[in-house]
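Discussion board: Methods & Data

I've been asked by a reviewer to show the raw model output for two of the constructs in my manuscript, not just the figures. I'm not sure how much to include, so I'm pasting the format here to get opinions. Each protein appears as its amino acid sequence followed by a line of discrete structure tokens. Is this the kind of thing reviewers expect to see in a supplement, or should I convert it first? Here is construct A:
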Amino acid sequence: QVQLVESGGGLVQPGGSLRLSCAASGTIFGINTMGWYRQAPGKQRELVAEITSDGRTNYAASVKGRFTISRDNAKNTVYLQMNSLKPEDTAVYYCNADVRILVSYTDYWGQGTQVTVSS
């Protein structure tokens, strides 16, 4: 069984910064892509950023230049550094990982962490 545990959410003023972390644990043979998604009230879940095992990244246009995704493969952990936060970044942020167990890959999700940007 694989678990993704997120941390680092909270309340921050506009223009502030937060760093999210997500650690994967369990019977893991490897992890392909790891990413962050978010879901605001009344909206669909959307991709924020993702990173492959060899470090290639992809960002949503709305966060490009403000957010940075990184990962530590030895720790099965992905990070999201969020700078210059805006009220529209307010959402529940979910970690996602494409995990290899034996010979197949399975998609796993974290429980979500709330990020609120407000003065």
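Construct B, same format:
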Amino acid sequence: QVQLVESGGGLVQPGGSLTLSCAASGIIFSIYTMGWYRQAAGKQRELVATITRDSTTNCADSVKGRFTISRDNAKNTVYLQMNSLKAEDTAVYYCNAERRTVHLSYWGKGTLVTVSS
């Protein structure tokens, strides 16, 4: 059974930092592209950042220079370091594990990040 469990969300003031974690089980973590997506209230889910099996990263323009995605294959965990947070970063953040070549994609249940003073 595949499980992706996000943690680290919460309330933070504008300009603050948070680190999200996603622990994976039930998959061969090292061969999956891992990603973080987010969905704000009333909006569609959007890509935040991805990291491939060889640690090539990609991130949305809106978070470049502020967010960093990384992975630890020994711990089956992907991280999202978020700095200089803004109110518009408020959303539920979801972890994704994907292997496009074999049409596999798994999602976590999400963790809420609220940026507010």
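Answer (T.O., handling editor elsewhere):
This is acceptable in a supplement if you add a one-line summary per construct. For B, something like: The mean pLDDT is 97.
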